Amino acid sequence: MVDRLEGHQVRDPRRLHAPIEVQLDQAAEEVSRRLAGRIAYQVVREAVTDAYQRLAGPAKVHSFLPILAARSAHRRLQAAP
Fold it and tell me: Where is the Protein-tyrosine-phosphatase-like N-terminal domain (predicted)?
């Protein structure tokens, strides 16, 4: 279940440990929403996946990597012409 709080999605904390692909899908959906659909979802999803893979290699703790990957992908896509 996803609720909204001041325009932001708030996820059920019981789902924080969802499978990584589900977390990356949710992250890509959020980035796509923030970009107001200006970039195709598949491009956003690939950017989130790429960012996740870059971060996951050296990471010792993976708990927040989908969130960090979403932020990284959002910055990269927002800066793209």
Answer: 24-79
